[in-house]
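Z., the sequence and structure:
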Amino acid sequence: MLSILNHDKIPIIGDVDILVIGAGTAGCCAAVAAKEGGAKQVAIIERYGFLGGTSTFALDTFYGFFTPGKFPLKVVGGLPDRVVDRLDSVGAAYLRPNTYGAGTGVTYDPEYLKLVWDDLAVFAGVRVFHHALLVDVQTTTDGVLCGVVIATKSGFYCITARRFIDASGDADLCHLASIPYEKAGELEPAQTLTMTFRICNVDFDRFEAAGGKRMLNERMSDAVETGRFLLPRKQGSVHAMVQPGCISTVAVRVANVDIDNFDELGDAEREGRRQSFLYESFLRSDIPGYENSRIVGLSTQIGVRETRRVYGNYRLTRDDCFSARKFDDRVLLCGAPIEDHRQSADGDEETIWGYIPNGGTYDVPYGTLVPKDRNEIWAVGRCFSATHDAHASCRSMAQTMSMGQAAGFAAALSLNSDCGAGEVDVTGLQEILRRAGAVLETPNTEASIEAAGWRNNR
């Protein structure tokens, strides 16, 4: 990619062992794991003034810790457990049973989670660059990444590093470094975007007495079919938050957006806000218990489910998921269903679900985290190497945290062993992950929800 910046005149603000781009769930876990894995200097750059990404600016529930179904298994551990343990210890999280969809979720207070991410990073000794936007990369004469350029309120700065972890969500680092990827929408319809919103002053007793979620779905469908409210979906997720009398939603739907185009992304943000307040009007008008409710918060930005997906040394596929495939180089497990939010040709909403047979799990191999034929970089979170369908299963935040955990330890191990990303001793990495508490073998039925020890009700 041709740079218009004169790097010779940009001051260096940091020289680190490992640099993480993006402080979402994957990036935070990657940075902490890298430090705990032995890297001396680890830094993370983040565009916002807080850590957590989608986990704090849009959502309030972790999915993927448990397999769905009648006999759920806990398939994630290590750093992700420590995050939930901290939330649970102060009453800022509870397990929310779900008899359909993605299964039991860990619903949490997103504002308190910001503090949890802060404390984890500070305690580990990670250097955090807030309000910093990646705008360019630096490479050696043979094309190896050796630094980045960030834009801040104080000007442009360079940060040099020996290893890099792209946890930007949009594969921004890989894009700038000309690393190949598939762009969402090129081969299959891209998943729709969602702006979440939160409503307070809900009378739950009145809501449940009137029929609860069944009644809500029926009236939502009726409102759309009669044209009383032109809602974008006939059904949506509305659930109780940790805060009493408050609900959080996944109901807004914005389709056909090229998120690489800042103009289209701006239009999507405005449409997300318009739809949010349309839902508020519908709920106040048609749903018992919501008469005096009001929106008290919108997500900081519209939620994006998929954009660029890097081509890695291995690419996770739909067949891998549905065959519950096992890999020798596994670094995490997933039992989440394929959850594909899309808009059909006639404009109707369409969420396609596909479940792992028999409530099983599949392995996610190390090769999905390493861009093909690169030795200095890992790609984690929603930009990891997977097809559209496999990505729609493995994008749950428990899995993205696990990806970050694996990549952070791997990056530290590569430095300690003086080897490239593709040359890491995966057997040694797996032992490090096990010692950290990660789950690498499909558990038996004893590894159930109750065994997690987290509160099971609000």
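The longest helix spans residues 262-286. The chain has a mean pLDDT of 94.

Let me know what you think.
H.
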